[in-house]
Amino acid sequence: EVGILAKSYIDQGRLIPDDIMTRLMLSELKGLDRYNWLLDGFPRTVVQAEALDRACQIDTVIDLDVPFETIKSRLTARWIHPASGRVYNLEFSPPKAQGIDDITGEPLVQRDDDKPETVTKRLQAYDAQTKPVLEYYREKGLLKSFSGTETNKIWPHIYAFLQTKLPEVSQKDAATPR
Predict the structure, then answer these.
(1) Which residues belong to any copy of the Adenylate kinase active site lid domain (predicted)?
(2) Is a pLDDT exceeding 90 seen at residue 13?
(3) Rg (Cα) of the chain, in Å, rounded?
(4) Rounded to an integer, what distance in angstroms lies between the CA atom of residue 137 and that of residue 177?
(5) How far apart are CA 153 and CA 65, in angstroms?
(6) Has this prediction a pTM greater than 0.85?
(7) Domain for residue 86, yes or no?
């Protein structure tokens, strides 16, 4: 029910209100206190950050500083095959035939939230709401920023940083609660 409500905001190019997003996220985080975990895209507002801080101890916040034009280009180039969920990107992994799923030959569609006008609205709202969050965590000494436009150039720096934050664990141990 809450997910359907959240989707209605996304489809309109709006960010999900704090109370709905916080309720969704904090319910998912319950019981994970024995694990290391990484959140992607939450919190996006100071209100969400404060709620997260009351519920959990945060030790690092990573900011991926990527130009909006790069993000917009990647998102608007994304097309999907609705029946299977297969994702194509016209720049990085295009279908063999334009607009057609490689396996079924059925038409591909662009999600409403990947259309240029919706992406632009979402990025503008995201920028306005998240700048204060970055400052909130910068003031707490928890923020580490990485800038760039290409994953393969940014990732090695992020990975090296995370190695300084996370205890050495094997893949098997990573799946076991501590």
Answers:
(1) 78-113
(2) no
(3) 18
(4) 27
(5) 13
(6) no
(7) yes
